[in-house]
Amino acid sequence: MSADSARQKRPVGENKVKPEADQSRKSDAVAAGGDGAAEGEPIRSKERVKPDRSSADARKIKELEARFKELEDKYLRLLAEYDNHIKRTSKEKNELITYAGIQVFRLILPILDDLHRTVEHARQDESQKDDPVIQGVALIAEKFSKVLEAEGIQVFGSVGEAFDPELHEALMTRPSNEHPAGIVLEEYEPGYKYRDKVIRHARVVVSG
Question: How far does the chain reach from its first CA to its final CA, in angstroms?
């Protein structure tokens, strides 16, 4: 029998791979690759699941916002304190310039009081009314008063006025049938102002 005759008599389908054998090869590929990929296909690695960072990020944002709020409040407080400091020092500086001579005026006023007392005491004596020395002292006291007035020193009256602790210093109280309680009856020393500031309280007697 010839070779051609033998090939012709071979049963149909003998050269085909059986399905069982093909499935076996796929199973072997799965065991070798570990991911079930078919033979000849690239093996894909498993993707790692990333941790959920949303809660951590939200917590961090809250912490930063709280810190920012704290620093903002601190900055605003410091700014307010600095602004108050500037205003206070500016006011003190202006007052220092405006009332620079107060201490000198306070030292001069008792001297002026002594001149006035000398003149008043001398005029109570008839023999000294026309004394040239007393007249000279009276003239000096008058000029002294005018100089102080030109510099902003003003004397204020008290007799008959209601007692005011901002203006008066009560030395004593005295009963009075003519005035209600709290009225200035007598003035021992006049009070003085420099511009709008009291530099010496009037020393007075008040009705009780």
Answer: 164
